[in-house]
Amino acid sequence: MRPVYITKTASFLPNEPVSNSEIETFLGMIGGKPSKAQHLILRNNQIKTRYYALDKEQNVTHSAYDMAIRAIEKLYGNGVNADTIELVAAGTTSQEMIMPSHAVQIHGEMGGTKNIEVVSFAGSCCSGIHALKYGYLSVASGEKKNAIALASERLSAWMKSSYFKEEYESLSKLIEDPIIAFEKDFLRFMLSDGAGAVLLKDEPNKEGLSLKIEWIELTSYANTLPTCMYAGAEHDSDGNLLGWTRFSEEEWTSKSLFSIKQDTKLLGNNIIKYGGKFLLEVAEKRNLKTEDIDWFLPHLSSMYFRSKIFQELESLGFLIPEEKWFLNLPHVGNVAAASAFLMLDELFRSGKLKKGEKILVMVPESARFSFAFVYLTVC
Fold this sequence. Notes:
Layout: E1 5-12, E2 18-19, H1 23-27, H2 38-45, E3 49-50, H3 64-73, E4 87-92, H4 102-110, E5 117-122, H5 127-140, E6 146-154, H6 165-172, H7 182-185, E7 193-201, E8 211-220, E9 229-230, E10 233-235, E11 241-243, H8 249-254, E12 261-262, H9 264-286, E13 295-298, H10 304-315, H11 329-332, H12 339-348, E14 358-365, E15 370-378
Parallel strand pairs: 4-5, 4-6, 13-14
Antiparallel strand pairs: 1-7, 1-8, 2-3, 6-7, 8-15, 9-12, 10-11, 14-15
Helix pairs in contact: 3-4
């Protein structure tokens, strides 16, 4: 296995940052009324600004693959361009269409004349790390000399008020003052759009810093835990999760079937506990100690979880001091699979990194509880 280095990082965030007071200006108000839950949600998540690939008329300004390409283009230079890249691995929670896949759409719009390998990972927050691992293994094995790994999200596509119109009108016939279920309304005030990308090579930069990938660990607890976050699906009367093809076309809209939903109780009871469990397993396997971590980059869906994670690490005897934590959630928002790339890019460009320092990236995924850890050395 050859060593693999992240030699360049990049981000693209669409349009101008959107403040809390502007969220429903962009996404619209369900039933023409402000959400009753938004103030509680925003107080807990502590997100101050986020980005939408929308204008105030809810017109789309960028697709998920547009944003990916904008990030990729920032990786170009020093002989790297659309014709010298050997692999594009892309992850997303919010690909634009069922087919073609996210990565081939990106490749189709990248320009260049070269046919290359592309691979797509769809799912939730860990899909970006799956793309990173595929790129890492491709370069490490000698299959490729370089690769781009990325994640991009246009989650605003699923949060516009117009998608809840028919469900709201159906509820209005039964209830005088209807409210869209919290599990659907909740995520409208949590998620953001954007893209992040990294360039992988089999040798470090001759000048400036690089990040050597030491290892990437992923696991799923889907065999242990039920589904927590989902879209294009709904539970039947027996609690079984059924995909969109099992419902009539009328139910797609009357049930807001394609909205993103999350069981917040299931999330709270399990996401921290199982993340800590996997961290200890990884630490034992990799002989990782807290003193071997100079920077800790946890992907958080909400700042509410920051103190919870800290307490869990303390109880497990694996406390990472808060001065080692690096977060950008409050000003970037939760960009799902792209969040880890956006954190890494911001830290890489911050001027704070020193050669020899170690970085631990943590990505939890609530869809059906998956977790990823990435360990890097600054060189």
